[in-house]
Structures are given as structure tokens and as C-alpha cells.
């Protein structure tokens, strides 16, 4: 574990920086291992003779300073600092040499003076301060693309800004990067101009291949639109046969990237993002996991989730990007219900009933509505409602049962549907209207509890290698084929 202090532009505020480092280093938050300073500094104005821990700053020329523990970096280089790999871009005009320097290395932190051009791509404009929108240098973006660091820090613009994390696909591996902009040392005590930030970083082995993808993660903003379209087209040609031609699949991919219908969630939380590159369920985005897709219709598709609770755990996902199921069109609803009816027959043949969960709750990223379908033995149907009510009291999830013909209001909600134990043709619906914070894994947790497998409530414990996921998908597809209406589509 490396404990690192990050600082913005020092300028000539060496005494201010020194005082702050000493205070934090000796506090309950310390001790720290080293300090990284992004942005610009005037090395010649430094009169501090000694620093309490190593401090690294960027400069555009060599300086014969005599300050103990101050490291002036004036060339593009990668250094091992306390077991962490730190890349310094001191000369943004020498990107080619930098690219050669970082080639095939796992970079923990990239330190640059300026922002990368395009950092605000794939982010709603409301989430980026106007003073830094469309700022940054193309060469810094090229350096970030070459390094693919775990963290990228920069200064120059006087603000504290944390971008949503972004992911880069490298074959079967993914690299997750967090970009942080820092303010100018000593300029202000305002939170939006914060100039020092602390990190606790685990030391990652070079062969580490997998990362957790947090909510709100976007695609790499520096990849060109042309490359993204080429990848999407390539994925369409590779997509397994589901009763649709390659041309039809391509059409559906384009459809999924269109602007969604208006919904409460979109109007309150997120602006429309072109091409939906940050969405995990849009067929047009490179992040969609095509190997998990079981069947594709004209308006919706069926897939298994990553980290399934049971092998026949399923998702029904409208192709059109819409935040709430209450706002999808009539044609999409018709096909969603066709998938539900097919799954009902599929599960019934195995002596199972299905719990359907529909959640419309704000998240950091762009929400794409879907139904989560968990099959359970028919024998436990009498206890389903009671378990949802009981677990709800533990997590401030208060349910009320809807009347058969009652509509769901266009607001944030969790809706649970399951067969009546006395008449399986009748559906019971429990609705929780979300007000304030909501435990996002609640529905999955309850389903796992009903199946007497509470540990599987956390999807991370259920993730298996891609090869095993592919096998699960093919097995599901084979068993579901007699009920799959999409095989009849032309």
C-alpha cells in the first residue's frame, strides 16, 4: 500500500506547500510515502532546504537546487517510487519518446502539467465546470492514451476536478483510469479549488488483468469516434446468430444509440450523451458483453448477467436506451412481455417460477432500464412476499402491494413481481417508491436469500472467467431455444 499526497501547481508557494506537507505528514492521516506535484512551478524561487518526505515536481529545465528530498523532473521518464510506477510528462512536445518510455509498463500514476484534450468527452456538460470545458492539450491526451495509468493528475486550470472513471479495453483485459485536476497551491481554501489530495494505492502486480468497474464508468474519452464505430461494426459481424441477419443486428446496434424518449430520470439527472459510449447495455457501445447475449429481438434482447446468482438468471433489456421501463414504447413493451412469457414457460418446465425486478433509481452513469429475472423453486412462492417485506425493514425499503390494474408512477422506484402462490396465472406486484438513498443491491440480496445462498447477493463473488460465461450463455441458449420466439423472426 502506497500513501501518496497529490498537489497542484506550486508556482512560487514553496513555503505554503512545505507547511501543508508537514502538517498532513505528522497528522493522524499520515505518515505519507511521497508527494507528487502536477502543474507548473518556479524551481528557482524555492528556498526550502529540506523536505520531510520525497517531493516530485515537473520543470521544463534542469536546476542545480540543493533542497533535500526535492526531486525536479525535467525529462519524460518512468520512475519506481516506493513500489509504484510513476510516469512524468515533463515535455508535452516529446510524446513519441514518452510513448516509447511507457510501452508495456503498468503505470500507477501519470503526472502532467496540463489537462488532456477531450477529457470532458462522454460526460454531461452539467458535470464539468464551464471554465475547464474543452480545455487541455492534444499531446497530453496522447500521453494518457499511451500510459493508460490507474490515476492521471494535472494542474494549470486552478480547480479541483475528478472525472468519472473511464475504461479502456485491451483484448480480454480492461484498464481503469481516474483523472484528477488540482488547484493552485495556496490560492484558495474553497473546496472547488482544493490543491492537495491524498491517495492510498495498492501495489498491483504487472500481470493483474481484471479490475472492478464502478458505477458511472465511461469508455475511454480519447479514442476516436472512427475507431469506436469500427469496433462496434466488428462486434456486429461477430455477434452470434439469434435468428437475425448481420444487417439486422447492425441496424439494432444503431437503434440502441439513438436519443431516448423523454423520461423523469433523464430530465432530472443526465443530459443525452451521443452514441451512449458509457452504457453497458446499449448494443452500439464497445463495452457491451456480446458473449452474454442469449437472444435478440427487434425491440429487446435477452442476456445473462455478469455474476449470475444461478445459471438461468436472466436480463430482459430494451434495445432503445431509456432510463425507465415506464417510458419505453408500445412495441418494446410487447416484445418485453413476449420474452417474459417465453421465460415463464421455460422455467415452469423445470418446476420454477420467476421473480421479476424492475429498478429505476439514479446512478452516476447513464441508466439503461432492464428487467432482472431470477428463477426460484415453485415451492418457496408462499414465502416470497414475506421475505421481501422483512428484508425491506432492514434497509428502509417499504413496500406496498399494487392493485392488478394500478399503474406505476413515473418516479424512482423498485418494482417486484412474482406469481400468486394460489393461482400462478395471477401476478403480485410490490412497489417501493425511492426517496433519498437506496440500497442498490437490495433486490438481488433478497433473491439470494430466498435461494438460501446469501453470499451470492454480491455479484462480485459470482463472477467467473469469460470462457465459463460463454459456456453458460451457450447452455442457456440451447435449453431456451424451444421457447425462443426470435428464432422465427426474419
Query: Any low-confidence stretches, pLDDT <50, length ≥5?
Result: 224-249, 258-277
Q: What is the number of helical segments per DSSP (H or I, 4+ residues)?
A: 10
Quaternary structure of the protein: single chain
Please report the first level of CATH classification, the CATH class of the largest domain.
Alpha Beta
Identify the CATH architecture of the largest domain.
4-Layer Sandwich
Instruction: Classify the beta-strand content into a percent band.
Output: 15-25%
Radius of gyration: 26 Å
E-strand count: 21
CATH topology of the largest domain: Purple Acid Phosphatase, chain A, domain 2
The biggest beta sheet reads:
8 strands, mixed
Mean pLDDT: 84
Structural class: alpha/beta
Distance from first to last alpha carbon: 56 Å
**Share of helix, binned:** 10-25%
Organism: Aphanomyces euteiches
Protein name: HIT domain-containing protein
GO molecular function, one term: RNA lariat debranching enzyme activator activity
InterPro entries: Cwf19-like, Cwf19-like_C_dom-1, Cwf19-like_C_dom-2, HIT-like_sf
Chart the SSEs and their pairings.
Elements (H helix, E strand, L loop, with lengths): L1 E6 L6 H12 L8 E4 L12 E9 L9 E6 L3 E5 L2 E6 L5 H8 L6 E4 L25 H10 L3 E4 L6 E2 L3 E5 L2 E9 L14 E6 L16 E2 L5 H14 L7 H11 L7 H6 L23 E4 L3 E4 L10 E5 L11 H19 L3 E9 L10 E7 L3 H14 L5 E2 L11 E7 L7 E7 L8 H9 L15 H15 L10
Explain what the structure shows.
- Strands 5, 6, 7, 8, 9, 10, 11 and 13 form an eight-stranded mixed β-sheet that branches.
- The termini are far apart.
- Helix content is 24%, strand content 23%.
- α2 (95-102) packs parallel to α3 (138-147), α4 packs across α5 and α8 (381-394) crosses α9.
- With 490 residues, the protein is of the alpha/beta class.
- It has helices at 14-25, 95-102, 138-147, 225-238, 246-256, 264-269, 330-348, 381-394, 442-450, 466-480, and strands at residues 2-7, 34-37, 50-58, 68-73, 77-81, 84-89, 109-112, 151-154, 161-162, 166-170, 173-181, 196-201, 218-219, 293-296, 300-303, 314-318, 352-360, 371-377, 400-401, 413-419, 427-433.
- It has two domains: 2-206, 4-Layer Sandwich (Purple Acid Phosphatase, chain A, domain 2), CATH 3.60.21; 290-488, HIT family, subunit A.
Amino acid at each position: 500500500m502506497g500513501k501518496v499526497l497529490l498537489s497542484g501547481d506550486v508556482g512560487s508557494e514553496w513555503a505554503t506547500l512545505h507547511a501543508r506537507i508537514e502538517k498532513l505528514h505528522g497528522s493522524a492521516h499520515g505518515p505519507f510515502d511521497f508527494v507528487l506535484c502536477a502543474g507548473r512551478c518556479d524551481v528557482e524561487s524555492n528556498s526550502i532546504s529540506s523536505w520531510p518526505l520525497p517531493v516530485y515536481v515537473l520543470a521544463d529545465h534542469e536546476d542545480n537546487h540543493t533542497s533535500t528530498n526535492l526531486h525536479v523532473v525535467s525529462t519524460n521518464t518512468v520512475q519506481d517510487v516506493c513500489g509504484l510506477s510513476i510516469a512524468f510528462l515533463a515535455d508535452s512536445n516529446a510524446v513519441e519518446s514518452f510513448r516509447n518510455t511507457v510501452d508495456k509498463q503498468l503505470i500507477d500514476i501519470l503526472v502532467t502539467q496540463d489537462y488532456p484534450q477531450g477529457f470532458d468527452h462522454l460526460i454531461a456538460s452539467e458535470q464539468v465546470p464551464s471554465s475547464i470545458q474543452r480545455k487541455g492539450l492534444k499531446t497530453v491526451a496522447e500521453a494518457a492514451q499511451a500510459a493508460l495509468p490507474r490515476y492521471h493528475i494535472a494542474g494549470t486550470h486552478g480547480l479541483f476536478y475528478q472525472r468519472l472513471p473511464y475504461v479502456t479495453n485491451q483484448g480480454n483485459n480492461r484498464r481503469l483510469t481516474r483523472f484528477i485536476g488540482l488547484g493552485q497551491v495556496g490560492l484558495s481554501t474553497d473546496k472547488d479549488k482544493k490543491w492537495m489530495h491524498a491517495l492510498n494505492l495498492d501495489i498491483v502486480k504487472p500481470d493483474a488483468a481484471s479490475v472492478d468497474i464502478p458505477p458511472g464508468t465511461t469508455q475511454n474519452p480519447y479514442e476516436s469516434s472512427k475507431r469506436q464505430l469500427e469496433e462496434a461494426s466488428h462486434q456486429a459481424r461477430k455477434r452470434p446468430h439469434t435468428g437475425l441477419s448481420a444487417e439486422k443486428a447492425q441496424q439494432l446496434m444503431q437503434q440502441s444509440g439513438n436519443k431516448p424518449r423523454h423520461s423523469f430520470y433523464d430530465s432530472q439527472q443526465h443530459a443525452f450523451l451521443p452514441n451512449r459510449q458509457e452504457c453497458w447495455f446499449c448494443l452500439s457501445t464497445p463495452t457491451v458483453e456480446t458473449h452474454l447475449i442469449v437472444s435478440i429481438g427487434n425491440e429487446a434482447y435477452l442476456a445473462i448477467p455478469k455474476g449470475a446468482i444461478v445459471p438461468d438468471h436472466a436480463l430482459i433489456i430494451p434495445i432503445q436506451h431509456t432510463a425507465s421501463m415506464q417510458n419505453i414504447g408500445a412495441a418494446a413493451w410487447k416484445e418485453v412481455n413476449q420474452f417474459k412469457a417465453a421465460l415463464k414457460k421455460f422455467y415452469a418446465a423445470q418446476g420454477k417460477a420467476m421473480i421479476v425486478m424492475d429498478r429505476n433509481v439514479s446512478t452516476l452513469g447513464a441508466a439503461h432500464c432492464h428487467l432482472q429475472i431470477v428463477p426460484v423453486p415453485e415451492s418457496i412462492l408462499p414465502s416470497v412476499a414475506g421475505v421481501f417485506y422483512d428484508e425491506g425493514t432492514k434497509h428502509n425499503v417499504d413496500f406496498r402491494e399494487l392493485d392488478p390494474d394500478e399503474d406505476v408512477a413515473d418516479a424512482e422506484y423498485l418494482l417486484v413481481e412474482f406469481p400468486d402462490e394460489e393461482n400462478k396465472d395471477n401476478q403480485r406486484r410490490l412497489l417501493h417508491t425511492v426517496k433519498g438513498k437506496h440500497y442498490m443491491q437490495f433486490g438481488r440480496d433478497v433473491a439470494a436469500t430466498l435461494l438460501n445462498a446469501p453470499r451470492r447477493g454480491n455479484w462480485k463473488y459470482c463472477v467467473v472467467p469469460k470462457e465459463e460465461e460463454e459456456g453458460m450463455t451457450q447452455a442457456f441458449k440451447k435449453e431456451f431455444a424451444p421457447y425462443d420466439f426470435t428464432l422465427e423472426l426474419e
